[in-house]
Amino acid sequence: MTFFMRSLHYMRFICLQTAPLKKSVYILSALFLIACQPTSPTEVLSSDNNEPVDIPLISTDSVTITPDHILSIKPTRYQPSLGLQGRIEPIKQINLMAAQPLTVEQVLVSDNQWVKKGTPLLTVQRQEILNKAIGSDDTETNIEAELNTTASKADGSSTSDNTSQTSVLNKKPNASIDNKTMPTQPVIDDNRAELASNSKDRTTAKQSSDLITLRARFSGRVENLSVQAGQKIEDQTVLLKLSDETELHFISTLPIEAESQISVGQTVNFTAEDRVDKFTGQVSKVQAVKQPMQLLVYVNVINNEVSRNQLAPDMQVTGRVDYGQIEVGTIVPKIALHNVDLTQIQVPPYKPLRSLTANIWIIGQDQRLTRQPIEVIEYDPLTKQYLIAGISSDSLICLANLPIESKGKKVVVS
């Protein structure tokens, strides 16, 4: 006798012994029978929309499915677009760097100070010139050799020191040079002493003329000022950074294949981290680079009240730029998509930053299955459906989760 039969026999025995509990025993027996029933397959599997999905039957040359596994193509129009991502930074910014060892004579600005174009920032002197000027035994030959060197100016232009030094040497004592006054040299009657005095005068004039005043190329804010007066610095040392934060942009990278889809002048709508408002930009430059092979897209921020009040350097932004003509896609549930991670588009803006490829089962006109790659365009959080592209309108979509071996098999609907 099975356990089930023994349980029923025991319940009947209780009923005979205890008449008042007869009704309760019958209820318990009914509940016990229900609990012993197996769960149906349709209750085990369900889609994201809580709709039951039957398990398909797969044979050697066919796949048997139900009508619920078949989804007709419903065309939906959409605008193709590309995702852009970058970090806000000033359009005009420059790091002033020493091209050779220098000695900082004066620091004329402070960190975080706003300066106008042409404002003196630093006064520096080349260390090699300073060392030669200090030596008392320098001859006129050494001095003349120094006059033929070239100094690099703050604006990037190059001017011969010969012209600069000659004008200094022709000045009278106490002439002002870059706000510094040349010391007055005494005049001595002794010929030998006069020769030495003249040599020192020329050396001092040369030393003053080798002072270089670095000026602001454009109006902006002084940042990362890390040098002090009297400090000796090595070459390739950054002196300070100058940034104009009134004009902003961001730079995004795209696959090189997108070069034909984007051009200068296109409008970019974007959002910024921790900001509710949407902002507008415009593609100002598109540049292809080789290592690695990719496309750099420069987007200038449209300067308006909203952007001026909310955007600042170093903010992370995400946007999109439309391209091409209106195209046609179709809407499918999640169970139709395979071999893809969809979590990245289940958050705003519900569109992938880069092309998102998935696989889908298609029933062709010959009633055979094909596994086709498609592109996921967008996610609708209200319907929990996905917009995809890459399927012809004369096909049918199979929603069953089939093994890869099902490719090429004939579909039987029962």
Secondary-structure map:
Elements: H1 3-17, H2 22-35, H3 41-44, E1 57-58, E2 62-65, E3 70-72, E4 75-78, E5 81-87, E6 89-97, E7 102-107, E8 114-115, E9 120-126, H4 127-134, H5 140-147, E10 150-152, E11 158-160, H6 161-169, E12 176-177, E13 180-181, H7 191-209, E14 211-215, E15 220-223, E16 232-233, E17 238-254, E18 267-272, E19 278-289, E20 294-301, H8 305-310, E21 316-322, E22 327-332, E23 356-363, E24 369-380, E25 385-389, E26 396-398, E27 410-413
Parallel strand pairs: 2-27
Antiparallel strand pairs: 1-2, 3-26, 4-22, 5-21, 6-17, 7-9, 7-16, 8-15, 9-14, 10-11, 12-13, 15-17, 17-20, 18-19, 18-21, 19-20, 22-25, 23-24, 23-26, 24-25
Helix pairs in contact: 1-2, 4-7, 6-7
Task: Walk me through the structure.
The chain is an alpha+beta fold. The protein has 8 helices and 27 strands. Strands 5, 6, 8, 15, 17, 18, 19, 20 and 21 form a 9-stranded antiparallel beta sheet that branches. It has a 7-stranded antiparallel beta sheet with strand order 3-26-23-24-25-22-4, with no helix packed on it. The longest helix is centred in the middle third of the chain and has 19 residues, at 191-209. The radius of gyration is 40 Å and the shape is elongated.
